[in-house]
Design brief:
The structure holds 2 protein chains of 2 kinds. By secondary structure, chain A is mainly α. Helices cover 75% and strands 1% of the residues of chain A. In chain A, helix 3 packs across helix 8. Chain A is globular, with a radius of gyration of 23 Å. By secondary structure, chain B is an alpha+beta fold. Chain B has 2 domains: 178 residues, 3-Layer(aba) Sandwich (D-Maltodextrin-Binding Protein, domain 2), CATH 3.40.190.10; 208 residues, D-Maltodextrin-Binding Protein, domain 2 (3-Layer(aba) Sandwich), CATH 3.40.190.10. Chain B has 20 helices and 14 strands. In chain B, helix 11 crosses helix 20 and helix 19 packs antiparallel against helix 20. The termini of chain B are far apart. The N terminus and C terminus of chain B are likely disordered. Classes of the chains: A mainly alpha, B alpha+beta. At the A-B interface, strand 2, helix 2 and helix 13 of A face helix 5, helix 19 and helix 20 of B.
Chain lengths: 295, 441
């Protein structure tokens, strides 16, 4: 009994913090999502009988954005995992100048997203950016990279991969360093090839780190906002708009706070479902069991 | 942690101390200067936020105004070029409570939202009905809401129909003629496409829809009931007409991805017989040595046979921000910036349609601004986009649905039924009930 009370007491600060910064806003969004609160109501909440949720179900823009957000998250996280793994393997090898190299690799991750996105926007600018400058000096005509949906989407993913791959690499590098070197040596003495070592030893032991990186990055990229807001503004014609950006626009452009809350809460629910689904899939694949093993 | 070691350590940091001294040297005069300015009764600064092209267009007159010694110094803030981006910028500062500008150049499609948010001061105290009476009928629209005047118009632009004078003797009188002439020219191989317009999923498509709804005797918005009426037979006919343009090859399928400039460039390259665009397109066509330079006529938007056509109103005007520390001086700037002198210059140099009737009778202007007669005609029956604070959401969903129709998702009937249903849902969600008329203060 005493231990239960004291453990509860010890947990109290954390619980209070969670309740104020997480539970309270969530409940507030839930309440606001049942109200009309816009310039038409003088920004005062007026109950509208669930009209926001009915609107959401029929809102083509919301579902289009949901699909776009999911596609963005899956593509960029997959690329980040593959690229991050390759980078981690490279940085794990005894190279000359490995220390500075590791620090350099982290540079994109250390840049604020807004600064990085502005950089990309300048690089892709039509006609003043360096890429278009190069195209013109080769005799071509400038190309509107950010006014074509396909190229805009490609560069949004590329910018995200470029920025967050170092994070994944660092996480996996930490994992690689927990793998005892003598295991690899033993395998090599048995005549295992590099690919075999990677498949039979490195990847299985790295799984907890891989799944951690996957969940971290998935949660972040499903909520992507700043990169898209600065790089493409969700354009052209909304083809790169994410759910978080749509929620923001409902509040800041349409001045419709009731529906903005609805979109935000729905995004959160979708995120829980997506992450929960991902987690279940991982468990089935036996990866979760691996995470439970002390590293 | 004590102060002493800190200061002793500072002594060992000549760089930090040096930086602090430099900072002080920079900051002191800056603050000191402000104080001196206040004492010397400097002119009252009035800041105006405008999109960059219009800011550049008024730069000359503003410089002359500031040199005239009126006791007011106009500072034009060059905002972003894109209409939506500049509105976002304005809203973010207005939401914070203290906007860094006294006047805002307002697009006609934002007005209702800003008014409902309570960000503007009414202007009728300074600009009575006799002042608006001196403007063309269309220029008076989209400035008043409720019982108040919220905006003084600076430009009177409307959507126009461009036609090739080398391919036909006179412009089409209605939508049926437009299609007939197009198909005849296409059949004879004189031109690749008939009609180019804006079909991309954006505000431009909503402007096209406003014109087509009018052309087929339908409406988007019913002011009396403050709700949308997009599923009327006329509205479906309007959507069907646009859909048929693509299916019959009068317009290219690429129109579904055309904004103003895409359509203009294709037309200027001689690929089509007709173009829907704003007045600025005329200068773009005429300034170059393109294949259609000197072979283009301009007319007002056509309607279906027996119906009155009308172009969408796309006007800019100045509004006074509530909380401006100098409302009287700001109104003086509105009076002058929207006055005939500046509008005359905008018409001459940029081709913007004036709002004052007497400028249309100015012989020199008539000679040097060839579009003037058509622009005046267009201002007799222009079409206003719905004046509701929820316009941005309604426009977004209509453009999305119609663009879906153009790319083959749904037929016209289904498209307009969905747009109507979604509009009702938006209004119920935004206003509480769909029937409650929006309260405009």
């Amino acid at each position: 009994m005493r231990t239960r009370t004291s453990s509860l007491l010890l947990m109290l600060p954390a619980l209070v913090l969670l309740a104020t910064v997480f539970l309270y806003p969530l409940l507030r969004y839930g309440w606001l999502s049942l109200q009309a609160s816009s310039v038409l109501t003088g920004l005062l909440p007026v109950p509208n009988g669930g009209a926001n949720w009915l609107r959401l179900l029929d809102d083509a823009r919301f579902w289009t954005d949901a699909g776009q957000t999911l596609r963005f998250a899956l593509c960029s996280v997959a690329l980040e995992l593959v690229g991050g793994l390759a980078l981690a393997l490279l940085l794990h090898r005894p190279l000359r100048g490995r220390g500075p190299l590791r620090a350099l690799t982290l540079l994109p991750w250390a840049l604020p997203t807004t600064v990085m996105a502005l950089g990309w926007r300048w690089i892709l600018n039509d006609p003043h950016g360096p890429i278009n400058g190069a195209i013109r000096s080769l005799g071509g005509t400038s190309y509107g990279f950010l006014s074509t949906p396909a190229t805009t989407w490609f560069f949004v993913v590329l910018a995200d991969v470029w920025k967050t791959m170092p994070f994944v690499a660092l996480l996996l590098l930490a994992g690689l360093q927990t793998i005892p070197a003598d295991l690899e040596e033993a395998l090599r003495l048995e005549g295992a090839s590099r690919v075999q070592i990677l498949r039979r030893l490195t990847l299985p032991l790295l799984l907890p780190y891989l799944s951690l990186a996957l969940l971290f990055r998935l949660a972040q990229s499903l909520g992507v906002f700043d990169l898209i807001q600065v790089l493409s503004g969700g354009g052209p014609a909304g083809t790169t708009e994410s759910l978080a950006l749509y929620a923001y626009l409902n509040a800041m452009r349409f001045l419709d706070f009731g529906y903005a809350s609805t979109v935000m809460l729905a995004t959160f629910l979708l995120l829980v479902v997506a992450l929960g689904g991902g987690w279940l899939l991982l468990r089935r694949g036996g990866i979760a069991r691996a995470t439970e093993r002390p590293a | 942690m004590a102060a002493r070691p800190f200061f002793t350590s500072l002594r060992r940091q000549p760089v930090v101390v040096g930086l602090l001294v430099v900072l002080l040297l920079v900051l002191l005069p800056a603050f000191g200067l402000k104080g001196i300015q206040a004492i010397a009764a400097e002119p009252v600064p009035i800041r105006v936020l405008m999109p960059a092209p219009l800011a550049d267009a008024v730069a000359g007159p503003v410089a002359r105004f500031n040199a005239s010694g009126s006791g007011v110094a106009v500072q034009v803030i060059r905002g972003p070029l894109d209409t939506e981006t500049i509105s976002d910028l304005a809203i973010s500062s207005l939401l914070l409570g203290e906007a860094p500008f006294d006047l805002l150049l307002v697009d006609v499609s934002w007005l209702a939202k800003y008014v409902a948010a309570g960000w503007f001061l009414p202007l009728e105290r300074w600009f009575g009905p006799e002042i608006l009476a001196a403007m063309e009928p269309g220029a008076r629209l989209g400035n008043g809401l409720g019982d108040h005047l919220w905006r003084m118009p600076l430009t009177g632009d409307t959507g126009l129909l461009y036609w090739r004078s080398d391919l036909m003797d006179r412009p089409p009188r209605d939508t049926a003629e437009l299609v007939a002439i197009s198909r005849d020219l296409q059949r004879r191989g004189r031109v690749r496409w008939g009609y180019l317009w804006q079909g991309r999923q954006y505000e431009g498509l909503s402007c096209v829809m406003v014109e087509m709804l009018q052309a087929f005797g339908a409406r988007w918005w019913d002011d009396a009931t403050a709700t949308t009426v997009l599923d009327s037979p006329g509205a479906v006919a309007a959507a069907s007409w646009l859909d048929a343009l693509l299916r019959d090859g009068v317009s290219p399928k690429a129109v579904a991805n055309f904004a103003e400039n895409d359509a203009l460039q294709s037309f200027a390259a001689g690929e089509a017989a007709f173009l829907r665009n704003w007045p600025y397109a005329w200068r773009e066509i005429e300034k170059g040595e393109g294949p259609v330079t000197g072979k283009v006529g301009v007319t007002t938007m056509v309607g279906a046979p027996g119906e009155q056509g009308g172009g969408t109103l796309g006007t800019w005007g100045l509004s006074l921000i509530k909380g401006s520390p100098h409302p009287e001086e700001a109104v003086a700037v509105i009076r002058w910036l929207t006055g005939p002198v500046v509008q005359r210059q905008l018409a001459l140099e940029q081709g913007y349609a004036p709002t004052w009737s007497r400028l249309y009778d100015d012989p020199e202007l008539q000679r040097r601004a060839p579009l003037l007669a058509v622009q005046r005609q267009a201002l007799q029956h222009p079409q206003l986009r719905p004046l509701t604070p929820a316009y941005a959401q309604l426009s977004d969903l209509l453009a999305r649905q119609v663009n879906g129709m153009l790319t083959g998702q749904d037929g016209p009937g289904q498209t307009m039924a969905t747009a109507q249903r979604q509009s009702q849902q938006v209004l119920r969600s935004v206003a509480g009930t769909p029937d409650r008329a929006p309260r405009i203060p």
